[in-house]
Design goal:
The protein is an alpha/beta fold and 480 residues long. It folds into two domains: 313 residues, Alpha-Beta Barrel (TIM Barrel), CATH 3.20.20; 129 residues, Jelly Rolls (Sandwich). Helix content is 23%, strand content 23%. The strands form four sheets. Strands 1-2-3-4-5-6-9-10 form an eight-stranded parallel β-barrel, surrounded by four helices. Strands 11, 13, 14, 15, 16 and 18 form a six-stranded antiparallel sheet that branches. α4 runs parallel beside α5 and α6 runs parallel beside α7. The termini are far apart. The structure holds beta-L-fucopyranose. Beta-L-fucopyranose binds next to loops.
Length: 480
């Protein structure tokens, strides 16, 4: 009899339960890897660095670009030490000047006297990122105020060849891999006063062919989307899904509100990216200073903490180095994030759920998966259970003011609203915070509370919810 019971216990634990079916538009594996990078560094560098401008008009002499002591290894080191997954460089900004010897253009480093015309910023950055073990991406502006053919069909072909050249020669490792291709939607007048009709299909297919793992950024993706502002702030509601049919980058993009919040049930998976500069401008200006630590922490919470990726611009100066004041600020940011997020108080909790996929003896989607700090293990409910409750209890009271949640996004973004309650000393539950979306990562800023129990109630989900992680932190640095 004991043996029969034991056998029953064993078999009922190991019976297979299928994972939930993917729901709606889902990310590609590359988009998931990209989202896990969380923070990347943007480097605006070019003639504007030397002319003190934000937009050059394309008539700048090539010799203007003359970094006196360029060191891409320093950029890569600063990026790596501050926790950035990669660097995206303005290989060509609107002034058309190319930071590499682009055979399609006569307005490049090759025509300058910098390093006797033998300099190549992209080659140096490729080596530096490879050495530092971080990724590399390219910003190549379609708007070109220098190209003589701009405003005609011939320019689309020139731009394709420009892409072909850069995308096959630069990037990390022997394979010259790029993790992101950044397309600015800006479309102004070229040297002849004409505007260009961009062939986006041609541009995107060129990227896909040469860099199949690169995520393509534009106002509407297809890999990731502009968040609708340059202040580093995603919507409190932020869906990674959106409807892009019939839209295009630039003047034909969806409204900035839509870009900011995405669309529930949207047809395409195009997660938000927050591009914002550590300084006022995108390019280096000697009279500007970096944002304060508390401004940067706010930006972190408003971007990474709201299901977006943070692309923080840190402009190299006229030497071709990141100024000490910026790199020190980034190290302060790193130390602050480490001190806030290194101690996950939820790890000490006992977890109970109102439903666990396949039943509580089934371990594949165990509620404990939410407390292991591993994104790839997750808890899920049965298909029919859309509004479960997760309760965490603690032997000793815990004090926190940050609640972090992560959905297992490879199966889609499902949760539309939820709230968090804490147990008061009289045993009654009290609402701490209500929120809408979660996505890859959501960090809720709450008042500082001390409690022995907390519950997360999913109020609305479009399919059975999944959660990779639930964490609690104490931030003593930021004032809410
Ligand atoms: C904008 C550009 O016009 C700015 O100069 C900057 O490059 C920013 C990131 O994108 O559209």
């Amino acid at each position: 009899m004991t043996i029969v019971l034991m056998l029953f216990a064993v078999t009922s634990c190991v019976r297979t339960v299928n994972p939930p079916e993917p729901y709606g538009a889902c990310p590609t594996p590359q988009q998931v890897e990209w989202q896990k990078m969380e923070m990347n560094m943007f480097c605006h560098f070019g003639p504007n660095t030397f002319s003190d401008k934000e937009w050059g008009d394309g008539t700048e002499v090539e010799d203007l670009f003359y970094p006196t002591d360029m060191d891409c290894c320093q950029w890569a080191k600063v990026a790596k030490q501050s926790g950035m997954g990669g660097i995206i460089i303005t290989a060509k900004h609107h002034d058309g000047f190319c930071l590499w010897p682009n055979p399609q253009s006569s307005h490049t480093v090759a025509q300058s006297s910098w390093k006797n015309g033998k300099g190549d910023v992209l080659a140096e950055l490729s080596r530096a990122c490879t050495e530092a073990g971080i990724g590399m991406g390219l910003y190549i502006s379609p708007w070109d105020r220098n190209a003589p053919t701009y405003g005609s069909d011939a320019y689309n072909e020139t731009f394709r060849l420009t892409l072909e050249d850069a995308l096959s020669r630069y990037g990390t490792g022997d394979t010259h891999t790029l993790f992101e291709q950044w397309f600015d939607g800006a479309n102004g007048e070229g040297p002849n006063g004409k505007r260009q009709n961009y062939d986006w299909n041609l541009f995107n297919s060129t990227v896909n062919r040469l860099q199949p793992t690169a995520v393509i950024f534009s106002d509407v993706g297809p890999g990731c989307r502009w968040v609708g502002n340059e202040s580093g702030s995603a919507g409190e509601t932020c869906w990674s899904t959106i409807n892009t049919d019939g839209y295009a980058p630039g003047s034909q993009a969806p409204s900035t509100d839509t870009l900011n919040q995405g669309c529930r049930g949207g047809k395409q998976w195009v997660p938000a990216e927050c591009d914002v500069s550590i300084r006022h401008g995108w390019f280096y200006h000697p009279n500007e200073v970096p944002k304060t630590l508390s401004e940067l922490l706010q930006i972190y919470y408003n971007s990474v903490g709201r299901n977006a990726l943070l692309l923080l611009n840190v402009p190299p100066d006229r030497r071709g180095r990141i100024a000490a004041i910026d790199s020190l600020r980034l190290m302060e940011l790193r130390r602050a994030l480490d001190s806030i997020f290194s101690n996950d108080l939820a790890r000490q909790a006992e977890v109970d759920v109102t439903n666990q996929r396949g039943g509580k003896r089934c371990k594949n989607f165990d509620s404990k998966n939410m407390l292991d700090g591993n994104f790839d293990s997750y808890w899920a409910t049965d298909d029919t259970v859309l509004t479960p409750t997760i309760t965490l209890t603690f032997k000793k009271p815990v004090t926190f003011n940050r609640v972090m949640l992560q959905e297992f996004i490879p199966l889609g973004q499902r949760i539309a609203s939820f709230h968090v309650d804490i147990k008061q000393t009289d045993g009654e539950w009290k609402r701490l915070v209500s929120a809408t979306t979660i996505g890859y990562k959501r960090i809720l800023l709450t008042p500082m509370v001390t409690t022995t129990a907390l519950r997360i109630v999913i109020d609305e989900a479009d399919a059975c919810p999944t959660l990779s992680n639930v964490s609690l932190f104490l931030d003593n640095i930021t004032q809410k």
